[in-house]
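Data availability (excerpt). The following record was deposited with the supplementary files.
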Amino acid sequence: MQLDGTDRKILRELQLDAGRSLDEIARAVGSSKTPVWNRIRKMREGGVIGPQVVIADADKLGFEACFFVLVRTSEHDADWQGRFLHAVRSRPEVMEAHRLAGDIDYILKVRVQNPRAYDVFYQALISEVKVHNVTALLSMEEIKNTTALPV
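Predicted structure:
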């Protein structure tokens, strides 16, 4: 799907706050409600826009510890990978998971209440799947967190 300047303006506005009314978004991009709604609908149908969600405040909900977990494995076969992916995808503590190029095979972003809760997560993970090495890094301060792409 090709996006023009107006589509990109709409996307920027939606990324700031998709909960605003169509009237507010249309005003912000210099258009009227119906054309903006049609463009949003086309971007949804084209897969440019995914589901709308609420971003909850982890700290206010008691998930004060954010760990970045570096995983190295000595196994790369399909069976191990399937078990690892299932373990990661089924754990609600895992906010993000990425397969990497380089010395580290995977990095996980894990949100838990405290270090003790991380240990419970860690013990569950290593009981489900064999890993060669796990390094957990505790985030001391979140400096920037955004879901907005630079469109």
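Summary of structural features: The first strand starts at residue 65 and ends at 72.
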